[in-house]
Amino acid sequence: MIVDMFLFALCIVTIVNIARCLSSLRSLLYVMRQAHPLLYQQVDGRGFFSVQGNFAKQIRLYHYLKCREYQQHHDEIFTAKCDRVRYLFALNVALVAITFVTAVMM
């Protein structure tokens, strides 16, 4: 019983953090449109969340954040949003992995 409640709570926390990450990503794309229009076009900012979204272009944004290419950018708001999305993505990967391992072990 307690184990099930723990797993349920862990799933809720994971879902809430995924929603936070998606919200921050949407906010980053909005700021990116003004701060870095070329990157916005490269990652298909307008169609990023659509069904027709290009996965290769989405991976381009992942590599941009992973390699911290944004650190040389002049806009502080843009770099702060990039840091936040990068942090939330790492947190979500860890939470999903822990949730999966916990679910398998129980």
Automatic annotation (TrEMBL):
Localization annotation: Cell inner membrane
Positions of transmembrane segments: 87-105
GO cellular component: plasma membrane
Source organism superkingdom: Bacteria
Topology in membrane: Multi-pass membrane protein
One matching Pfam family: UspB
Keywords, sorted A to Z: Cell inner membrane, Cell membrane, Membrane, Transmembrane, Transmembrane helix
Primary localization class, coarse: membrane
NCBIfam families linked: PRK04960.1
Family: Belongs to the universal stress protein B family.
Protein name in the entry: Universal stress protein B
